[in-house]
Amino acid sequence: MLQTLSSRLSAPAFRPLQGRKYPSPRAISRELFPRPAVTPRQVHPSSMFLAAIDLARIVREAGYLVYPLLLCSIVAVFIIFERAYALRPSAVVPEDLAEAVIEGRVPSGDKRSILGRILNFAQRHVGDTEATKAYARLEVIRMERGIGYLDVIYAAAPLIGLIGTVSGLLGAFSVVDPQTKMPDPVVFTESVGYALSATVLGLGIALPALIGSGYLRRVVDKRVAHLDVLLERVLAKQGAAPAASAVVAPATIPAPLR
């Protein structure tokens, strides 16, 4: 049987096919399904303007929830910039006062900086260490003023957006076409856009508030550590002065006359 098959393939009708090279399946696929030419992406000059239009569309589609979210964003931005300005080094630990304390001197403080107010209080209450430390803790509380509101904002903004998500989905499936027994495409599209817009705005406000809160708390911790070191040095200096005077005082008392 094999001899018969080989004799048939060697017949004159099959001789022109012998020795001819045929394209591989990969080459055939490249011919049938050519790959599209890759062109470099071109950035249109109006891309920023188009992004602004998209943001305006998101704000417009958010509906009535845009007002509390807008209020949260304004408050968050104000707190971040106000605390960043209030916690600058010159307003908390001025360099000249810090150097004076490190050198062992207790300069007269002023009310323009937190360290100056603490030094002023310490000089007016010499020997009352607990009162000075309590006043320093009060200044630390003032340094943290407003940061707690950022925590509330980054927790509340996504929840406000979630309210928009739930209400938008309820609106999407509340209107049903009587003929197709399916949700109305127009109402469905508007409701889904409303839900997604509220969610995006809520997350977009919560993220900067979270970052700002973490950054400001880190700055407060750094300033408090610096103040703590300087305050301990001031209190040690004030505590050493009465002890030294008590040791020297008996030697200065004149001997009684005999």
From TrEMBL:
Major subcellular site: membrane
Membrane spanning residue stretches: 64-81, 152-173, 193-216
Keyword list, A-Z: Cell membrane, Membrane, Transmembrane, Transmembrane helix
Entry annotated with the keyword Zinc: no
The organism of origin for this protein: Halteria grandinella
Domain MotA/TolQ/ExbB proton channel, residue spans: 134-227
Gene Ontology biological process: protein import
A Pfam family assignment: MotA_ExbB
GO cellular component: plasma membrane
Protein name per Swiss-Prot or TrEMBL: MotA/TolQ/ExbB proton channel domain-containing protein
Family: Belongs to the ExbB/TolQ family.
Cellular localization per UniProt: Cell membrane
Membrane topology: Multi-pass membrane protein
